[in-house]
Amino acid sequence: MTFEELRRVQFEKIKANICKGSFYSSPNDLVINEDSLNILKLIPDNSISLILTDPPYHSTKKNNITNDKSFATDELFIDWMSKFFKEWKRILKPNGSLFMYCSSAMSAKLEVKMSQDFNILSNIVWTKPNEPGFDGWKGKAKKESLRQWYPHSERIIFAEVAEEGNLKRSSFGHFLRNQRKIAGLSGNKLTEIVGAYGKVNHGGAVSNWEAGRNIPSREQYEKISKALLDTGKISSMPVYEDAIRKFDVNSNIEFTDVWNFSSVRPYKGKHPAEKPLDMLEHCILATTYEHDIVLDCFAGSGNTAIAAKNLNRKTISIDVEKQWCDSIINKLTNHQFFQMVYAEKIS
């Protein structure tokens, strides 16, 4: 089975599980108009490659964003979000990634709670620069009345699933150690077979991989898989794309934890929390492969789905507001036309 076929089968399984809640379905896209927590519970374990989502910020208290004013205290908001964290950990592939947008006022509290289930890899600062001639709220604010620095930036928490039992709480480290023990191979023996000797300690590269210090290359992983399968005690090994978390950046793109993607200028029909397509595409390209499944459970503008579709990924969009689900469907079904119109609106 090819990688594309594997992802198609996984996507069809998800669709079968949540067909009753399906609002719109195509071979590569799902849109569901529902409370996302209800739908998340229907998604099979370890089936999503990337969660890229923008929950209510709570601290901004906007009337036009559902649940932004629903919680009397920060603690109640965090308790509500923790229900999502549990489901996100369950449905993410062990090598999957998570981007969660949040306000600077709430990021620290959210990180503490998230760290129970995830390794927090980066706290990204999105500076939200405006295009020339558009100052936005930053330009309108009465600076002399401020009692703290104006909160012009937003935060993006980037994380992976955490698995207890090794130094770095590495899911791959946990998996490799279990498979090696089932196969009856010592760490030194597997290191010898793979031919990769580490510099950190006596156990070599295998010991480092199992501790989560680093990861094997594709060639090394193929040797690991063959060695384990050759024992006859392991029946199958996942493909590299389902074992090692993808992360691919270079010096020509944003590679630091400070991002300067321009915010979306106002236009008729704009979602109040709309994120720029180029930033969402940046997230998807760095952390997924073609045909991977991308989930946004606070879909809003639908730009996550459009970014994923642009890059030949499969998409699942969930939003509690019917008007935004209608808008997402319109964008997906008129994809090429929308791309041209959107480019004109933000130019």
Could you characterize the architecture of this molecule?
With 347 residues, the protein is an alpha/beta fold. Strands 1-2-9-8-3-4-6-5-7 form a nine-stranded mixed β-sheet, sandwiched between helices. It folds into two domains: 3-163 and 246-346, Vaccinia Virus protein VP39 (Rossmann fold), CATH 3.40.50.150; 171-242, Orthogonal Bundle (434 Repressor (Amino-terminal Domain)). It has helices at 3-17, 36-40, 74-91, 107-114, 136-140, 171-183, 187-194, 204-211, 218-230, 277-287, 303-310, 322-333, 335-346, and strands at 24-25, 29-33, 48-53, 92-102, 118-126, 154-161, 258-259, 293-296, 314-319. The longest helix is centred in the first third of the chain and has 18 residues, at 74-91. It is globular. Helix 3 (74-91) links the parallel strand 3 and strand 4. The model has no long low-confidence stretch (mean pLDDT 91).
Task: Based on the model shown, name its key terms.
434 Repressor (Amino-terminal Domain), 347 residues, alpha/beta, 2 domains, Rossmann fold, 9-stranded mixed sheet, single chain
Cα radius of gyration in angstroms: 22 Å
Order of helix and strand elements from N to C terminus: HEEHEHEHEHEHHHHEHEHEHH
What overall form do the CA principal axes indicate?
globular
CATH superfamily of the largest domain: Vaccinia Virus protein VP39
**Helix segment tally:** 13
Strand order, main sheet: write it out: 1-2-9-8-3-4-6-5-7
User: What count of domains describes the coordinates?
Assistant: 2
Straight-line N-to-C gap? 43 Å
CATH architecture of the largest domain: 3-Layer(aba) Sandwich
